[in-house]
Amino acid sequence: MKLVHTAALLSFLSAAACAAPQAAPAQPRSPLAAATEALPPALAPGATPPVPAPADADNNAALPPPSSAAQKLYSSAKADLLQIRMLLKNGRSQSTVGSGFMVGTSNLVLTNYHVVSQMALDPDVYAGEYVDTDGKRGPVELLAVDVLHDLAVVRINRSGTGFFNVPDKLVKLTQGQYLYSLGNPLDLGFAISEGSYNGVVTRSFYDQLMFTGPINSGMSGGPSVTVAGEVAGVNVSKRRDGELVSFLVPVRYAQELLKKVAAQTAAPKDFNPLIGQQLLAHQKAMIDRLLDAPLSVKMMGPYLVPVRESEQVRCWGRSNVKAEASFTADTISCAMESAIYVSDSQQTGHVSMSHQYVRSASLDKVRFAVLASTLFKVENLGSSKDTRLTGPACSEQFVATKTLPLRAVTCVRAYRKFAGLYNFTLMSATTDDAKASLQSRIDVSGVSYENGMRTTRAFLETLGRGSKQ
């Protein structure tokens, strides 16, 4: 068995990544990330649901009747409220729908990036269309996107009445005050829902506002306003495992995007390079924050395992005794609470790590070796036919930290549309005990090659052995 010591860890990882410059599997989702999703645009009749799936079975429930304040707001605002549709250019059939709103008296419309993502990523395949509350429709021109905060600005062939103003000065909100979200839920018609502001959520990488009120699919991109009509945020997502827990993009991010639109001389002809630049900027901040201090260390049996717990990353543990297999498995899993939406089939900018400590008092060495080998699976990494990522290129070696010999496999995939972005997967298994095995894994999606190397190296070098238990 070839044993490479700590000094060789960097060269091993470099060889693995260079063998095939490129990315990782669908990331394990934390409970919060799995439960909180960007609201998918409502579907045209007969359409196939996009991923992520519609938020909840109660999406079909009618919104509660509006208060007199809501009625007055809707009456004043409805002329500047729009439905935004994505259409297949071939046949002009409807693909998805969301919402948007006119900005002041201009011909600009604010919405979510995920509402117009098809047009941004594949402009030769998809086109945009708006429909107002009077049923009038027209084309949509995409001017700017902010993928990190899920915002977009489009231009249409009519102007607003001036109801929805996005002023330079931020709206002051107090916990418990009423907010009113507008949009077109489930493609059923325009509606307004009443709820309350309940503070800033910091578990996602970027701030979001908690709105305790109903926001359903198709309301994505619609405005959420105060009783005075001031825009407080943009509808974006809801909790799938809760009642009336929804989220808004703070209006300050919309202000910043509108300033960029005012400064640009022309809209980009191809948004893919711009989206790639935004994702590269995000991954740098994400990895810098993740590794701003050494990874924390926990004990699993005799082993030292790296974890990271913070506002953005949560860890969970469990223990399962497999009586029929005569072994015990303890697991620690850590994952970021959020990811960056790119398309219905791709989320990125995510880090997860897991450790499984398996041991047996009854299996002999040969049977335990078979068990450990079966559990150590290099799979679910995707194929070369994936239109988003290149096929995985993997390299396997036996390496050693200062205190622990390991079998390690590194797999790398590259993004096809966004140059300089990769997914990294590192899997390792201990080789120092014939009847116990620590199997660890880290997945890092949407990072530069340098930061993928930096993160997997920090993870691998932290693995070790402490005192025996």
Question: Can you walk through the features of this model?
Answer:
This protein has 469 residues and is α+β, with helices and mostly antiparallel strands. It folds into 2 domains: 6-26 and 293-465, no CATH class; 35-269, Beta Barrel (Thrombin, subunit H), CATH 2.40.10. It is 20% helix and 37% strand. The chain has 8 helices and 26 strands. It has helices at residues 9-19, 31-35, 68-77, 113-121, 251-263, 272-290, 365-375, 449-462; strands spanning 36-38, 42-43, 81-88, 94-102, 108-111, 126-132, 137-146, 151-155, 178-183, 191-201, 208-212, 223-225, 231-239, 246-250, 296-300, 303-307, 313-322, 327-336, 340-343, 346-348, 350-359, 393-400, 405-414, 422-430, 436-447, 464-465. The strands form 5 sheets. Strands 17-18-21-25-24-23-22 form a 7-stranded antiparallel sheet, with helices on both faces. It has a 6-stranded antiparallel barrel with strand order 9-10-11-14-13-12. Strands 3-4-5-8-7-6 form a 6-stranded antiparallel beta barrel. A hairpin with a 4-residue loop joins β7 and β8. α1 (9-19) packs across α8. The protein starts with 8 loop residues before the first helix and ends with a strand. The model is unreliable at 1-12, 14-35 and 42-61 (pLDDT under 50).
